[in-house]
């Protein structure tokens, strides 16, 4: 039983390391930031998740002590990774595409969103534009 | 068995951090560098956890938790600075 659990823990550890490596390789290799964003935010978070699961199983099994830190790290990391990815993508859009106040590295016009009278959420919604709805 | 797995995973994460360092130096834009730094913090957390299992101690978990929190706050602060030119408005 312990041997089986050890094998499972070893597998989780190797899987976590492999995921971290694949995510970072994607970050170094992919062409633009919007594609590069997927490597770290998915693969690396999964890798850390695998390692945390392994340590959550390892410590109660072998040294009879349990700590809630792994659970806290997992929760915090899995909650914060999408938020930081969203913030990075927003900063990238606002600096790179037209309609922003950074003229040096402006490259392309942002494509129009689907639908009539709509706008990308990060540039403000024209649906709630003051001039159209007559809001104060 | 665990020892071999830990060594493989530590080598993988160390290589991943070197790749992150390379993309941090390469850039080319500021959001790219922020993304590389954020990934590097996540990999550092993984490295600390692996080393904690390797040394059979739970002391390093506080450090990993602190790195998770400070890494997230620093990423948000950097992107906020890029977006608004100010961190606390």
Structural notes for this entry:
With 136 residues, chain A is an all-alpha fold. Chain A is 65% helix and 0% strand. Chain A is built from 5 helices and no strands. Chain A has helices at residues 2-29, 33-36, 38-62, 69-96, 130-133. The longest helix of chain A is centred in the N-terminal third of the chain and has 28 residues, at 2-29. Mean pLDDT of chain A is 76; it is low at 128-136. In chain B, helix 1 (2-26) runs antiparallel to helix 2 (30-55) and helix 2 (30-55) runs antiparallel to helix 3 (60-84). Chain B contains 3 helices and no strands. The mean pLDDT of chain B is 87. Helices cover 85% and strands 0% of the residues of chain B. By secondary structure, chain B is mainly alpha-helical. The interface between A and B is large, with 55 and 51 residues. Chain B: InterPro entries: MrpF/PhaF-like. Chain B: It is found in: Cell membrane. Chain B: The chain crosses the membrane at residues 6-25, 34-54, 60-83. Chain B: Keywords: Antiport, Cell membrane, Ion transport, Membrane, Transmembrane, Transmembrane helix, Transport. Chain B: This is K+/H+ antiporter subunit F.
- What are the secondary-structure elements of chain B, in order, as H or E? HHH
Number of strands of chain B: 0
User: Which oligomeric state applies?
Assistant: heterodimer
Structural class given helices, strands, pairing of chain B? mainly alpha
Low-confidence stretches of chain B: none
Count of individual beta strands of chain A: 0
SSE ordering of chain A: HHHHH
Count of discrete alpha- or pi-helical segments spanning 4 or more residues of chain A? 5
Strand content of chain A: under 5%
List segments of chain A where confidence is low: pLDDT < 50 over at least 5 consecutive residues.
128-136
The radius of gyration over CA of chain B amounts to 15 Å
End-to-end gap of chain B: 53 Å
Subcellular location (chain B): Cell membrane
Protein name (chain B): K+/H+ antiporter subunit F
Membrane topology (chain B): Multi-pass membrane protein
InterPro entries (chain B): MrpF/PhaF-like (IPR007208)
